[in-house]
Amino acid sequence: MNRTTLSLIACTTALAAVTAFAALDTPAAPGADPATAAAELPVERTSLLCPAPSSSDIADTSYTSFTPVTKGTASGGKAQLQAATEQSADGTSGSKKGAGKKPAAPVLTPKSPGTPATGDTSGADTPAQVGTADGKYAPGWTVQETTEVVAGTGRGLQGVNCTAPDTEFWFPGASTAADRTDYVHLTNPEDSAAVVDIELYGKDGAIKSSVPDGFTIPPHGSEPILLSTLTDERQTDLTVHVSVRSGRVGAAVQALDDKVGGDWLAAADDPSAGLVLPGIPKDATDVRLIAFTPGDADADLKIRLASPDGLITPAGNETLHVKAGMTTAADLGDVTRGEAGSLVLTPTDQSVPVVAALRVVRGKGAKQETAFIPATAPVGKRATSADNRGKTSTLSLTAPTATSTVRVTASAGSEGGAPVTKTYTVKSGTTLDVPALTPSGLKGTYALTVEPVSGGPLYASRTLTSTAAGVPAFTIQTLPTDRGLVSVPRTTEDLSLLQK
Q1: How far is the CA of 157 from the CAs of 149, 186, 187, 291, 474, in angstroms?
Q2: Helix or strand holding residue 22 (H, E)
């Protein structure tokens, strides 16, 4: 090959590199319409992590997977949910326990988009799960883990949406009280170890940990960390901060109570001056607000309830003062008083970022059950609840600042049935509990997909209930955006860059 040919190849390579750089970095023209500046395209790959469901021998766990039908996706693709220890280095299934050993079967293999897939496990040995989806299965892929435990600490219904790996998580609402057994579950989907720090903040500020050097989570491993082993202090209300020094993990807190059941506490939305906690059940008998501000300034919050008729201020709980670096709690009692409701927190004066969650109790006396509602992001373009079971599911929709019109679709059932779609209007400052919307001819479980059509920001959650031995068991999952679409800049080649 002569020197002229080499020079031509080098020039062509440089041209391709510069053109690619321009395609990714060219800003939109001033005043350009965002709709023409960028296109929203379906994501091509999604990863989800599900924590190990229970240490109880009498636990029954179901997994439900669902991908909404999304325009513009490729025709191919695949998805599966499999034990973390069965993941190979390239992300495909395969035993990590030695050559020649047959890998365990996936806990479920998703069906085509628009139809849920389910899988079941039982006992205390079910491991954490790692899910991957690509192609047509990836946009909006949602997996729900639901566990029923009929007796013992944390008895009741425990549910969690499997989440994408990340590097930081906030959990207001955890506890090291004598009647609580709370674990932080950390799952590492990567091929290298992750190093994770866990910080605890109580009513007086940061609590010194007995493990100052952090935790190492092995590749494709999962570790439950008992909070009470990190400190001798017994505090009713804690905020847990999980930060990852290297790698990425999935994190969730399993909060189990000796007397009033338990549930998963999902990570709260990022610290913000204004927060929405949607979907307090109308028959809640006790609601407790836990808040924390990670900054150096105190926060003063106005507390309001978005009821079916508008925003109201709970008597005796008009505001909440949150000291910097300290966890603060307020008992709101039966704040909903038999009606649907969502909590709306706004700054009274200075805007200070806060994280918050609600601990919600249903039932009375010895027949009480607990669930949690963390502050959440709005639905955005679309959100999905994967595991619904007819009359035992309630969808709550909240429009805190402006009226919102929303389209809700009940998917086909996992074993049969046709989808049904209805449109609802949620008035400004209100919460609407959607009556049981089910597929036509439902067989099995189904998904609910929420898509705002017009109006202001919309927040949503789904409550799933069951009754065992007279206990009103329930679990609540918030429904933030499913991140099924990604903005891709519309670009053109600019060869003039080669002349500079």
Answers
A1: 7, 21, 22, 25, 5
A2: helix 3-25
